[in-house]
Amino acid sequence: MVSALLGQLNLGLLMFQPDGQITFINPAARTLLHLQDFAEDHLLSIHEVCQHCHNLNATCISRLLLHGIPSQEWVQGLQVHYFLLPEPAGAAQGAIALLPASTFPAVQEFQQQGALDTLFEISPDCLKYMDAQGNLLRMNENGRHLMQVDDFSALQNQPWSELWPEKTRPRVLQAMRDAQTGKIGRFQGFCPTAKNIMRCWDVVVMPILEGPRVVGLVASSRDITEQAMLEQQEREQAEAQKRFVSDAAHELRTPLAAIQGNLDVIFRYPHIEESEKKEILQDVQNSAARLSRLVHDMLQLARGRTGVKSDEEVLLHEVALSAWRDAQRISGSKHHFELGLLEPIELYGDTDRLKQLTLILLENAVKYTPKGGTIRLQLEEQGGTAQLRVQDSGIGIAPENQHHIFERFFRVDRTRVDSRDPGGSGLGLPIAKWIVEAHHGTLEVESALGQGSTFVVRLPLQECSVDP
Ligand SMILES: Nc1ncnc2c1ncn2[C@@H]1O[C@H](COP(=O)(O)OP(=O)(O)OP(=O)(O)O)[C@@H](O)[C@H]1O
Ligand SMILES: [Mg+2]
Questions:
Q1: What's the pTM value of the predicted model, to 2 decimals?
Q2: Domain range for 96
Q3: Which residue is closest in CA terms to ligand 1's atom 29?
Q4: How do residues 428-453 score in pLDDT, each as one tens digit?
């Protein structure tokens, strides 16, 4: 009779023995806890039930049975009450769990909503709930963190599309239109955080459907800034590689063509005059020397920092002075050489490379300074940094070319202004920059067209060790 009554109850009920064995589950609780698969006479333990449906808390029940502490808890929108059974004198106690009827019709929905809410909050991406027009209603905590939003109320009810820069907005609106018509919208674009840090996002916009009607939108934005930067770097590297190969081929072709052409002449006309033959062979030798220098420079650049020593004690002033003397020889007294302050500076690095660096800058000063001009060298220590300055009163470099002169094979086109181009392959400064960077330093240029140039090398003295 009692059991029949309990069976009618629109209220979930479970009865437990003191050892935690379940002695009775009414049909409402069976449905609610999805226990229909178990035979009605099967004695379930608390742990079996808890494991099966996750709606009941084994700890709560054990606590109740062992210590008599009644409790209640909310489990995914469902309030579960645990009570001790009335105690017949001296007998062991049992317990019951009640699942209120009022929550029944909405339980499934509650549970789904609860699961969605949990998903919404634990997602590592930035998730937003919006109304069907795309006004922001809610943003998950990780999203607020990613977007650096301290106070979401300022964004609430604002159109989401307006958070995006104008350039990206058409893509945002298109994805929203897709979602508003029941499809899934997707795009990638840059959008700054609330604190104005630009990030790149991969965004999916989905409709929230009620039957066929779109009642809201969910947007999930994944921060792909790092990935986008890597891809950009890879693209740039591939582009640079391609440019390098085509520039290198072009540079190598000139001396090769000269050698080939000159040798052709000698083979075709074996009886040309000895003096002319000598001249042609001299040309061949010059081209071969240029070819060999080109290949050597290109190899040096391609090898990267592995070719630079890090542990030599370098007396930088002596290195600079030795390059200074070489440059004077190259100039052949066509220029005034002024030696400024030359402070004794000692650092760890690669002596040969640092000499090569100084000589590249001095050679350029000689090459791009007309006869009678002045070339000046100075070395001093400034705030833990060795500062080497190579200054000339030469032709100077136009502002628009100053960024490019450190690129491989770049040479300022002087043919339009001056036909006396001293020649070169445009690898000197890229090598200089590579040596400076291998010593963790910087190389800068200050220059004005027609007034001269100053190249400044700064090398940190403390950690002036080269990358392994
Ligand atoms: N001191 C300078 N004054 C004016 N222009 C300069 C100076 N140094 C470099 N440049 C410009 O920068 C370009 C690149 O210099 P870089 O030393 O890399 O190549 P290069 O001198 O042309 O050839 P090389 O590979 O033989 O050194 C030069 O072609 C020149 O136009
Ligand atoms: Mg040069």
A1: 0.54
A2: 2-109
A3: 411
A4: 999 899 999 999 999 999 999 999 99
Residue where one domain finishes, among candidates 262, 279, 304: 304
- Ligand 1: which of 247, 356, 405, 433 to mutate, judged by most atoms within 8 Å of the beta carbon? 405
Instruction: Evaluate whether residue 173 is within a structural domain.
Output: yes
Burial environment of residue 333 by CB neighbours within 10 A (0 to 12, 13 to 18, 19 or more) = exposed
Q: Which is the closest atom of ligand 1 to the Cα of 297?
A: 25
Residues in contact with ligand 1 (CB, 6 Å cut-off): 364-365, 367-368, 392, 394-397, 405, 410-412, 424-429, 453
Nearby residues for ligand 2 (ion, Cβ within 5 Å): 364, 424, 428
> Tens digits of per-residue pLDDT, 150-187?
999 999 999 999 999 999 999 999 999 999 999 999 99
What CATH number should be reported for the domain holding residue 79? Answer: 3.30.450.20
For 273-315, the DSSP string reads -HHHHHHHHHHHHHHHHHHHHHHHHHHHHHHGGGG--S-EEEE
